[in-house]
Recover the amino acids of this structure.
């Protein structure tokens, strides 16, 4: 996302009063604020209002005028606050907030970054922030971008088509084959009217032939038709094959890429959106190859060839009969866009009806218990009536006007018949030629209806391709450096002045310093949303720190090969995710080569062996979605066995025992105690009693470490930890 | 700032006891009305308002609507300006305050709520899953983009709709019957 918009020369001069002052951030604002009367104006700002932050000042520019300025040195804090449908930037000067600028939601992310940048400068921090987020609109054409970095219409098109042709490169023989078939079938289509013409003129018109001539003609036509149909089938078959192979290729590539991409990429996108790209967008490509690609070429070839032959027969008549082509094209286009519109409306109504129905049926208990059946019936009746009316109207329109459309499409032929007929009567043209001509006219007008959809289908395909390549081209944010090496982890972990935020304008952790010795168990404590899980994410290197470094045995984690690093980390999370498969496979997930004995030992250590053996299929029990139903505690113990089997040097427990009943908690606690022995462990627990074995507790509050120490030390300190423990004891009593 | 926050958190937690919790939840339960007798607002040089209520002065308060759609000037909630935004009290009717005080709060509401109303529709174009609007609003001419389908357009009543654009801005059409037939037709695709 752009944080620096180029200003006009005059504006630049305003901003740069002395040479040592550098303009760092500059983004547009769209709402006006009357600074004199201190009221929000009900008016959009022109295109020349900006909020600018230099190394020394924060300013608001309105045209060639500075409407607000403040030395950053005087600001205690600069903040972006979200309002309703808009946001404001405030600066705290001498303890009092003052309004800097107001803007609509269109600019809020950008301004939030700028405010954060200004805040850092105000606090004497000279780090220049950047944004990795995508723009929402194309800068050239203003179109909304479908979650991609490039506009499918402007710059995406050519690049993507080139990429697509590269991709098709692997199937060049199939493509050549399809093209050859299409050429051949077009040739046959063109040939058939010619054969017909000869028959009419030489046999029928002159009445000179006999039965064998008729039979010969029928035979030839039959053979040609048969060949054409075979070619058609072959073409479709290959197109389908090509389409599904291409989409499979893309799907595989996408999936592989998604696996490699970092969590920061995942977090920016909804899981549904990614799933849509893997399945929906690739299907779009397949559909395009099947339905459009094949037809497109052959229609074009046939049309051009027909036109050439028509001109060679009679140029004037060709002109007459094609004169309406543009008109027909426009009419069909209008017709289809109207049809699209009214059926879209029907779809919307249908959707409303459906969701209304779903609402009531899933909320039946509430409806019944409040006695609202009558009211709901009335509401539903209105919805159905509404839908029925729209549907009736649309179907009537379709029924009435579709035949008319077909008629319009045939108009060219009627013109040809008229002029040709006159010509035939006057002896200028034979009946056979006329028939041939009329057939070609049909060839010209026929695909028009279908061709009006073409731009739409092509654009849809390009959009889909764009979305796919957007993922494929994404570089993982976390990469192994050139120097990255395999390291055998011992277990010392050091946080060195670590600062990190999922959005860099909104830091979750700031200036974290912590040294953890090999084999130590660290309990992370703090209210929810304070950054405990974030700390763990950083240790697992699902994200890279914004500033500072995390060292393992004195080596920066960024210099360790990810695969070797992750191999040596074990994780037990709050919600254990079991993959579809057997218990055995789930335990061996990270270490598929483990022997049965090792698996059983791990399961025993995790207190899982007993319950596993009691299931009918033992270790071969199928779990996961639609599999054998395991309780939360049982799943958790499988996860622990999984972690034990990898024999990790670094262990991470994220709320591993929450949401369990007391008995299974005891079993799991035991298992965990065995697991954590001798390993560097980071554990998050809401229930503080779970952390009683921790060597040290780290209390996180307000983005940073508030307290560090053993349970006894912290209790004595009577700080936040003491407060949390007392609170939990009180709650337990209640 | 961080230290301050920590300190306050510390205090809160240290003094944890049941009595206090009960008092706090009782506090939440109470509906306190601010009236012209017990509350006094003042403009700040920075563009916000302060409140003096029951001998306590708040340097800056937030002014929220409780029924933004149906009763924009009644039941105005006055809240603390920090992230927790605890409620200080509710003003039943702005019109019951001194006109100058009411004006002050009205200005704060205008600052907080950006709800342009659409007065004229020039053009609506749909293209590849997005709807591009070109309209006249109470804030002036404006172009915005919405997602086709889904919940971009919400009907509040039979004639009143709210359009949410891609950015999260909300445009309201207070009465679609006041639009021309041609304008309604353009809009029809989304309702």
């Amino acid at each position: 996302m752009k944080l620096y918009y180029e200003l006009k020369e005059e504006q630049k001069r305003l901003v740069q009063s002395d040479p040592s002052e550098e303009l760092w951030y500059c983004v547009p604002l769209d709402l006006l604020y009357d600074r004199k009367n201190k009221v929000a104006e009900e008016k959009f700002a022109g295109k020349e209002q900006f909020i600018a932050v230099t190394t020394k000042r924060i300013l608001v520019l309105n045209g060639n005028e500075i409407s607000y300025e403040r030395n950053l040195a005087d600001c205690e804090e600069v903040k972006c606050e979200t309002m309703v449908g808009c946001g404001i930037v405030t600066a705290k000067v001498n303890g009092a907030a003052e309004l800097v600028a107001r803007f609509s939601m269109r600019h809020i992310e950008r301004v939030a970054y700028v405010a954060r940048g200004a805040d850092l400068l105000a606090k004497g921090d000279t780090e220049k922030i950047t944004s990795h987020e995508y723009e929402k609109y194309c800068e050239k054409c203003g179109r909304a971008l479908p979650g991609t970095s490039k506009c499918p219409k402007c710059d995406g098109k050519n690049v993507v088509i080139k990429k697509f042709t590269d991709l098709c490169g692997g199937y060049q023989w199939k493509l050549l084959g399809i093209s050859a078939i299409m050429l051949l079938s077009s040739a046959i289509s063109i040939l058939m009217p010619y054969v017909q013409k000869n028959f009419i003129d030489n046999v029928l018109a002159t009445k000179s032939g006999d039965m064998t001539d008729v039979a010969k003609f029928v035979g030839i036509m039959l053979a040609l038709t048969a060949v054409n149909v075979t070619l058609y089938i072959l073409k479709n078959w290959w197109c389908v094959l090509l389409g599904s192979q291409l989409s499979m290729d893309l799907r595989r590539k996408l999936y592989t890429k998604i696996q490699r991409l970092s969590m920061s990429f995942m977090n920016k996108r909804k899981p549904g959106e990614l799933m849509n790209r893997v399945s929906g967008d690739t299907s779009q490509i397949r559909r395009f190859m099947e339905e459009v690609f094949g037809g497109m070429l052959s229609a074009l070839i046939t049309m051009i060839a027909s036109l050439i032959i028509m001109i060679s027969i009679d140029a004037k008549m060709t002109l007459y009969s094609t004169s309406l082509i543009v008109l027909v094209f426009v009419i069909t286009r209008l017709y289809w866009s109207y049809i699209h519109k009214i059926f879209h409306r029907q779809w919307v109504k249908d959707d409303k009806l459906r969701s209304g129905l779903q609402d009531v049926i899933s909320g039946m208990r509430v409806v019944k218990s409040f006695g609202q059946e009558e009211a709901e019936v009335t509401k539903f009746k209105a919805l159905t009536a509404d839908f029925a009316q729209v549907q009736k109207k649309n179907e009537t329109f379709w029924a009435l006007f579709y035949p008319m459309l077909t008629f319009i499409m045939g108009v060219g032929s009627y013109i040809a018949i008229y002029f040709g007929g006159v010509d035939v009567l006057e002896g200028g043209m034979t009946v056979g030629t006329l028939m041939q001509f009329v057939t070609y006219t049909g060839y010209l007008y026929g695909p028009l209806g279908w061709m009006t959809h073409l731009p739409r289908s092509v654009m849809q395909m390009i959009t889909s391709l764009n979305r796919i390549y957007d993922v494929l081209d994404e570089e993982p944010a976390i990469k192994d450096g050139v120097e990255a090496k395999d390291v055998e982890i011992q277990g010392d972990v050091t946080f060195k002045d670590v600062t990190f935020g999922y959005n860099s304008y909104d830091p979750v952790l700031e200036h974290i310093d912590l040294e953890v010795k090999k084999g130590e168990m660290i309990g992370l404590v703090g209210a929810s949303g304070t950054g405990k899980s974030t700390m763990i994410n950083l240790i697992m290197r699902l994200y890279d720190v914004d500033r500072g470094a995390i060292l393992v045995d004195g080596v920066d984690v960024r210099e360790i090969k990810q695969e070797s690093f992750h191999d040596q980390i074990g994780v037990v999370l709050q919600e254990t995710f079991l993959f579809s498969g057997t218990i055995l496979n789930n335990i061996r997930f990270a270490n598929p080569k483990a022997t049965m004995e090792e698996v059983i030992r791990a399961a025993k250590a995790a207190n899982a062996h007993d319950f596993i053996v009691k299931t009918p299929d033992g270790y071969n029990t199928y779990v996961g979605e639609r599999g054998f139903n395991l309780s939360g505690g049982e799943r958790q113990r499988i996860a622990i066995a999984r972690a034990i089997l990898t024999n990790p040097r670094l262990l991470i427990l994220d709320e591993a025992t929450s949401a369990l009943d007391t008995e299974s908690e005891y079993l799991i606690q035991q298992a965990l105690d065995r697991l954590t022995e001798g390993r560097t462990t980071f554990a998050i627990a809401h229930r503080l009693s779970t952390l009683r074995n921790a060597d040290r507790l780290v209390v996180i509050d307000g983005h940073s470490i508030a307290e560090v120490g053993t349970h006894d030390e912290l209790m004595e300190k009577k700080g936040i930890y003491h407060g949390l423990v007392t609170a939990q004891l009180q709650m337990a009593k209640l | 700032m961080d230290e301050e926050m920590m300190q306050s958190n510390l205090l809160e937690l240290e003094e944890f006891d049941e009595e206090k919790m009960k008092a706090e939840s009782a506090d939440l339960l109470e509906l306190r009305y601010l009236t012209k007798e017990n509350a006094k607002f003042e403009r700040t040089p920075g563009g916000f308002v302060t409140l003096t209520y029951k001998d306590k002065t708040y340097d800056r308060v937030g002014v929220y609507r409780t029924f933004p759609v149906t009763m924009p000037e009644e039941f105005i909630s006055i809240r603390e300006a920090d992230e927790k935004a605890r409620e200080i009290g509710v003003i039943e009717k702005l019109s019951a305050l001194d006109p100058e005080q009411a004006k002050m709060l009205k200005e704060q509401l205008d600052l907080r709520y950006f709800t342009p109303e659409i007065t004229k529709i020039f053009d609506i174009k749909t293209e590849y899953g997005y709807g591009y609007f070109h309209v006249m609003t109470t804030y002036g001419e404006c172009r915005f983009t919405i997602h086709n389908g889904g919940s971009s357009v919400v009907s509040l009543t039979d004639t009143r709709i709210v359009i949410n654009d891609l950015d999260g801005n909300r445009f309201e059409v207070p009465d679609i019957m006041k639009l021309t037939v041609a304008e309604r037709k353009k809009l029809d695709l989304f309702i």
Summary: The longest strand of chain B covers residues 71-80. Chain B has a mean pLDDT of 84. The two ends of chain B are 48 Å apart (CA to CA).
